[in-house]
Write a structure and sequence with these properties.
The protein is mainly α and 118 residues long. It has helices spanning 5-18, 32-49, 51-61, 65-73, 80-105.
């Protein structure tokens, strides 16, 4: 899957919005590592200030709870934001891949039948 700058910026904005974290509208993200770093900053903020909101985001994004627990238990606590950020971004990537797979397998509507669509 090709990851676009637009997708990364939209993903960052969505996570920030879910966490009620204000980010600059002009925040540019040009690499996956940069996206993970910025998501880790949001997660760090939520760990310190609104843990319940962080748990809600992890639930909404559908991060595997057992995987998160395992990874967090085997690393130092200061690595938690980065580990969780990787899980969140990877889950969002997986969702995007599934959307694309689903759309590819959809039967395209014949132009002659397009007037029958609701």
């Amino acid at each position: 899957m090709t990851i676009t700058t637009h997708w990364m910026e939209t993903t960052l904005a969505d996570i920030a919005e879910k966490g009620d974290v204000d980010i600059k509208a002009t925040t540019m993200v040009t690499s996956l590592d940069e996206l993970i770093s910025k998501v880790a900053e949001i997660i760090s903020h939520l760990l310190d200030r609104n843990f319940e909101k962080l748990l809600w985001i992890l639930y909404r994004v559908d991060v595997d709870e057992e995987k998160a627990k395992h990874l967090l238990s085997s690393h130092m606590p200061d690595q938690a934001p980065h580990i969780l950020a990787e899980l969140v971004v990877n889950r969002q990537l997986k969702k995007e891949e599934l959307k694309k797979q689903f759309n590819v397998h959809q039967n395209p509507v014949d132009e002659a039948d397009s007037d029958l669509m609701l």
